[in-house]
What we know:
The chain is of the alpha/beta class. It contains 8 helices and 9 strands. About 30% of the residues lie in helices and about 20% in strands. The relative contact order is 0.17.
Amino acid sequence: MSLNKWYTQISWEEVPHLEEKAKAELLASVPPYQKEARSKGIPTLGSGLIYPIPESEMRESDFKIPDHWKRAWALDTGWNWTACVWGAFDPESKVTHIYSAYKRGQAEPAVHAEAIRGRGKWIPGVGDAANINVKDGRQMVEIYREDYKLDIQLPVKAVEAGIYKVWCALTQGTLKVFASCAPWFEEVRFYARDEQGKIVKKNDHLMDATRYLLMNGMDRAIAVPVVQEDKPRYVSMGNDISQGWMAS
Length: 248
């Protein structure tokens, strides 16, 4: 007897015997936080979810971020996993867009710093990097700032206040996430509380980074710096004004 199990994700669209009327009736009978799981086979933890919002309401198609939108990032550090999210603020719609997500485990700070700089070394951020490096006794935030030249400050880490702020932004539609941020969606599907109401501290690094981003990361956001072009120099010699040093 084989004890192997096989799980396949399948949506209602792939079930030919379900008619459109039946789908509509079934969808109307389930709570909002279960609609994605029931209709598309996306796994969730039901009522324990911290953000019980259909993914379709959080996800948006990728697009090019305009240069005048202000950007910032938020970092959650650790040896097992280090994660970072990048946000851009639309001044017209007042919507913050998470447009990139990074997550990597068991790598040195130099690797993470390179990934952050690669998305724009001019972008400032916040990071949970107050822990001490055992090698030299410095805070990790100092290492990222001094050794790798990141513009980083410590975040506001109030957990419940941060969760509430993210929740409000998601439900009000003022926080959207690019569809390409697959690791972010993988985490939010299982970001939940246990039976005692405590947050399940497992696979939640991008969720922590999202809290930091909204709590004070976007307060540091800036637009793409404007590069000043060199202008011709004018040298005055009495009543004669010459353009540049080669003019006669």
